[in-house]
Amino acid sequence: MENLTQTKHIQSILVTSTRTYINNASIAADLAAMVAQTGKKTLLMDADLNRPVIHRVFELPNRVGLSDVLQGQRDVNGIMHSLINGNLHVITSGIMPTITKDLIGTKEMSNLIKTLKQDYEKIFIHGPAFFYNESTLLASQVDGVVLLINPSYAKSEATQAIVERFQKTGATIVGIVMRDQPKYQSNQSAFINRLLSYDKHNRVGS
User: Minimal CA–CA distance to 2: which of 202, 194, 140?
Assistant: First the structure.
């Protein structure tokens, strides 16, 4: 993973990919678990309402979740799952309503993120693939974005176009993950160490 910039305090992070997830993997889940293991109060949210995976990663029920909160049917504290000695709380996607709605680009979603930032040191959001409009909407609501780039996109004009698209939303690109690379796990750990070190430096300097 390549760290690109550290221009501000990074509390909420969207993780998105150049491809739709086709298995039960989630970089957001990996990063959230690693941060929670350091003792930080961490939240993981599945905001890919059409193709959710977080409930499968942790083998959690998904009868209710984010979609219910955004529709005002549930309180967020009532649908969270507590893991890793209580340091990690997970919000699954919930079931999409029968009638398609734009739940992600609503003021309810924006307000939810702002509210959660009062209670959690780090928030990781598993988002839709970058080419979906919901991903761009989420990027404008968080402090930073981590891009999961497929090797075929590496060092190409497509990668630059992706970065520019998110930067236009005002988002800060905090890292790029290269998929299916030998040093993938060590790069994840290095990114987490840089992120936490930056937080420490930010607090000391504030």
Answer: 194
Average pLDDT, the chain: 80
CB-based contact 13:146 (threshold 8 Å)? yes
pTM greater than 0.85: no
Q: Residue 97 has what DSSP assignment?
A: P
**Per-residue pLDDT tens over the stretch 100-116:** 678 998 999 999 999 99
Set out the domains of the chain in order of their start, with CATH numbers: 12-205 (3.40.50.300)
CB 88 within 8 A of CB 124: no
Query: What residue spans of 91-183 are helical by DSSP H?
Result: 107-116, 133-139, 157-167
| Tokens linked to 195 | 């992120």
The answer to whether 45 and 64 have CB atoms below 8 angstroms apart is no
pLDDT at res. 17: 84
Are 189 and 16 within 8 A, CB to CB?
A: no
Distances (CA, A) of 53 to 24, 46, 67, 152, 203: 6, 7, 14, 24, 34
Residue 79 has pLDDT above 60, yes or no: yes
pLDDT over 50 (residue 203): no
